[in-house]
């Protein structure tokens, strides 16, 4: 029985005809670039919110090892009051010394309270947990639709949790929930 198992092992362990070698030119190019695949960063803001940032890849900016360019970033903020907020974008930047993250390219923000927003970019202060949009945004909210020039998601005090402030030409379309009469 043992001989049959060993012969089967040798029979199926033959090497394939495909080469697994990386050409030398590609190897030297890969060695020149510092890159991290699937990085995850996390921390706690002053109000106790947990902030997690993940991305497809990250690499330091030239000459600034503590500032990272990130591809396909996703930011999640879990506040102490139970509110969750997630942001995804095309690209971004994490500035370690100044404790902020910029997410750009179509940025989508969703909250556990039912808000969904799209904007050109957002800036998150990693020390305070405050988030500000880079320009106009469209919002689907539990009460209807909203357009604004800017949104700031602020933390006025530890007891109140996050608040959204819409400014610069706010336009709202209120759509009341239809009531089912019994």
Could you characterize the architecture of this molecule?
The chain has helices at 2-12, 24-32, and strands spanning 36-37, 40-44, 50-54, 57-61, 64-71, 74-78, 84-88, 91-95, 100-111, 116-125, 131-133, 137-141, 144-148, 150-154, 163-167, 171-174. The chain is mainly beta. It has a single domain (38-174), classed as Lipopolysaccharide (LPS) transport protein A like domain (lipopolysaccharide transport protein A fold, Sandwich). The chain has a 16-stranded antiparallel sheet that branches. Strand 10 and strand 11 form a beta hairpin. The mean pLDDT is 83.
What features would you highlight for this structure?
182 residues; mainly beta; lipopolysaccharide transport protein A fold
**The CATH fourth-level homologous superfamily:** Lipopolysaccharide (LPS) transport protein A like domain
Number of strands: 16
Weakly predicted, low-confidence segments: none
Number of helices: 2
Count up the domains.
1
Query: Major sheet: size, sense and barrel closure?
Result: 16 strands, antiparallel
Taking all Cα atoms into account, the compactness measure Rg is 24 Å
Instruction: Indicate the mean pLDDT.
Output: 83
Shape by Cα distribution = globular
CATH topology value: lipopolysaccharide transport protein A fold
Query: What is the element string, with H for helices and E for strands?
Result: HHEEEEEEEEEEEEEEEE
> Per DSSP, what share of the residues sits in E-state strands of 2 or more residues?
over 45%
Beginning-to-end CA distance, first to last residue = 75 Å
